[in-house]
Amino acid sequence: VVSTRAIILGLLLIPVNCYWMAVMEIQYNSLDTTCVSIFFHVIFLIVVLTGINALVRRRFPGLAFTQPELLTVYIMLSIASAVMGRDSLENLLPTLGHVFWFANSTNRFSRFWPYIPKWLAPHNLDVLKGYYVGNSTLYTREHLQAWMLPVIFWVSFVFLLTFVMLCLNVLVRKQWTEREKLTFPLVQLPMAATGGGGFFRNRIMWMGFAIPALIQTLNNLNYFYPTVPT
């Protein structure tokens, strides 16, 4: 059962999750977190929530989240990550003003200007200068006015696109889950992690976790301290 408190928790964690993604994928360009088949940052947050939930269950059993509630948060974070991440909004926003800011006599992008409505992309070069060059802020009246309509349009479009995809999932759910009985490998890890039981006492699981964790730790140390081998 989807509960109100699970939805509230998911909404509170989405900004944290997306900020973490932005730092990794945009600021430092260190990891393409949403280019892999399972979003590790979402798994990390769910594992942390599961650990906290286990402590709460010991002291206050009535306040502990159920598995469906934890999976609700997982689904919300996963969808938000897919919408915000690489090859989605991260690529969309930088391209909105591209045809205006990078226009020159060679590419003749200015030919397309009359065909791009202002509600689709900001046109003002003074506004775009702060966006592409920096040393400015979004929070000025001129910048907010220039970006307001394009942001409203694209957020609405992405919302409808995501809703249509969810509707398609509903249409194929019965065929896939009840008739073909597909296993959906990507859901096995969050299902096992939130299901209690012996998941966190499974030695094979910890062995599988330790091997890539050790390799990635060595590679990260090598990045900061080249004397450490990769």
Features of the shown structure:
66% helix, mainly alpha, 230 residues
Can you tell me about this structure?
There is one protein chain. This protein has 230 residues and is mainly α. The protein is 66% helix and 0% strand. It has 9 helices and no strands. It has helices at 4-27, 40-59, 67-84, 89-96, 98-101, 125-133, 141-179, 188-194, 203-224. The longest helix has 39 residues, at 141-179. The chain is globular. The termini are far apart. 14% of the residues are buried. The model has no long low-confidence stretch (mean pLDDT 91).
Major sheet, described briefly?
A: none
Low-confidence spans: pLDDT under 50, at least 5 residues? none
Q: What's the N-to-C terminus distance?
A: 46 Å
Alpha-beta content class:
mainly alpha
Helix content: 55-70%
Radius of gyration: 22 Å
Mean pLDDT: 91
* Shape, per Cα inertia axes: globular
Tally of helical segments: 9
Helix and strand run = HHHHHHHHH
Strand content: under 5%
Total beta-strand segments: 0
Question: Could you give the topology of this structure?
Answer:
Elements: H1 4-27, H2 40-59, H3 67-84, H4 89-96, H5 98-101, H6 125-133, H7 141-179, H8 188-194, H9 203-224
Helix pairs in contact: 1-3, 2-3, 2-8
Summarize the structure in short.
Helices cover 66% and strands 0% of the residues. It is mainly alpha-helical and 230 residues long.
